[in-house]
Input
Amino acid sequence: MSVKAKNAKKDQDAELYSLGAAFNGSEIVPILEARIPIIDMGFLHSDVCYDVVSVWHGSFFRLKEHMDRFEKSYQGLGFSMPYTKQQMRQILLDMVARSRLRDAYVYMCATRGLPNLDDPRNFEKYQQMFYAFAVEFIWLIDPEEQKIGTDVIVSSVPRIPKESVDPTIKNHHWGDLTRADLEAHKKGARTAFLLDLEGNLTEGPGFNIFVIKDGKLLTPDSNVLLGITRLTVFELAKEMKIEARACKVPLATLRAADEIFMCTTAGGIMPIKSLDDVPISGGKPGPITMRLHKAFWKAHDDPKYLTPVDYK
Amino acid sequence: MSVKAKNAKKDQDAELYSLGAAFNGSEIVPILEARIPIIDMGFLHSDVCYDVVSVWHGSFFRLKEHMDRFEKSYQGLGFSMPYTKQQMRQILLDMVARSRLRDAYVYMCATRGLPNLDDPRNFEKYQQMFYAFAVEFIWLIDPEEQKIGTDVIVSSVPRIPKESVDPTIKNHHWGDLTRADLEAHKKGARTAFLLDLEGNLTEGPGFNIFVIKDGKLLTPDSNVLLGITRLTVFELAKEMKIEARACKVPLATLRAADEIFMCTTAGGIMPIKSLDDVPISGGKPGPITMRLHKAFWKAHDDPKYLTPVDYK
Output
């Protein structure tokens, strides 16, 4: 291809992929063209696990940890994937390169997949599928709002118990989380925290929760996703000599917190300024939260966490 | 079009649609071509409700009741559908006509739909979608097996509680149901019954459950889908002067049953012959179950329940 033709191709691609890129099970396509079969059990029975990893300033952040968790998830569902872990990793790298996104929200999933229409009930013999997409980095809470803190409620909707659906296998069973979010919006809050059926804190729609009391970090140890950002918080706290512990967190402990923050790949470490209209840490981001927040974004320059994308 | 051209078109269509037809949100297509956008929240967050209605010998069975329940479901999720109920009903009729299937399993769903990629978190403004498909009638239990009865287990996986996800809004949150089914298959049984967290009977993967004791029918009144086949059982029992009641059904009541059957659109009224390897009604279909089974299939000739498909 001539240099001119190459440049024309690049321009055309940039237009097509301007909203993002996806892997549709067999090839990389523009995000708006990415479709999955309606009869995929990942849709019909939400028989699917997923993961979300970020790309920041042109590099994946903690890609290894996300791929390891993703592998545990699909193995936990007994899936036999059509690609090796190494191949799926490479698909993600190629997909982000094609999108040309420097800061991206990268989703991947494994589904139970396609039935044999001659024997649709025999779902142990389905053909498993791998799909993915990359769009511009999604901020669960805008950076501007993160500076002042976020208002949340404690939802009246209990989290689906782990006995029914395992939350450590990241899944699409968001019915309870969506109801909680809608409840929060109705009450003028940004989002919601969900309790388990015994009234202990679990997680929110897409994020883990940390409580700070007397200088110590507490986060629920059960009925939650084992978040990679949650893991990073533990590591940063250790470096900063802040005690951090996963344990049961009763609602009373949450309400008595000195500081609260939520954390996720899609937004980082996000301070809470009120809970059910009651100010937390004086109605502004707390000091320990902001130290962790800064350390978290500084870690995005640490090569040990980064996998650079080759944009060519 | 000439007669010859018309016939050629018909033959081509028959080939394309031999495995079924689907409505992909905008048009009717062969089932294997039916795809949905990967970014539809019906997939990503299982933010979707659905319904399944049967076509038997060229007529929909209780289409009105299924459309009414479907309407309640999507209204319950706060969806604003892109088609009226009447239009969706017509799409189903046209889709089945195109498939030429005389006995069909007809699925329809409403999803939260497509985000605005410029504001992906604002899911209250998503564009809702309607999809559907028709494939050959699916027997949850084969007719031959229905003559001898089916082996089931009581699963160790509790049903997702109604406080987290409302089971009367028929949904794709099948994680618990799939785990229960896999547990049953591992133990050599066909399928599983799920209990709630208090140990009362709920439902199974895709079906309601009836217990017969001392000539009376009992079925759970909570944590279950309000099935249309379940409704038909109540109506048939009334005609046959058999007492039938929806109430709490503790595990002990289930184990002490004279007869047990499960029921669903995809298979009708299906007798159970063993529960956790213990024979039920002498290890064969019970007499009241079989009277209801016969009456159920006889009802498929009753014009009051039927909506004929115009195959042209």
